[in-house]
Known about the structure:
Elements lengths: L6 E5 L20 E2 L2 E2 H11 L4 E6 L3 H8 L8 E6 L21 E4 L8 H10 L15
Amino acid sequence: MSSPPRRAVILAGGKGVRLLPYTVVLPKPLMPIGDCPILEVIVKQLARHHFDHITMAVNHQADIIKAFFGDGQRWGLRVDYSLESQPLSTIAPLSLIPDLPEDFLLLTGDVLTDLNFERFDQSQVAAGRRFTISVSTATPA
């Protein structure tokens, strides 16, 4: 028995003004962490956790993000894009995605976590949750 398709939406359209001047040439989600851009780390995590379709909500420097990720084949999943014609508020890009399923995972393209996306998604869907926010705070050493 195969598992149901898993969909994620990644918000990756911001200008990254706090990282200027670096974000003049590279969008914030493509800033490297070691050998890998932040957004690629997230995509690899989603692929490892059996997500098969990612929609990236893009705006600022969208062409660079699209050129890097293409159709997602390199990671064994489907990547498509929702392009904001003008900057929207944080969650408003969801209104531009016509084929969103009832259950999907929403992420930002510039925050890294070690959350098991698959387990989190499965537990929230199984519990019939309509909306869940995952937050973690670091404990001071």
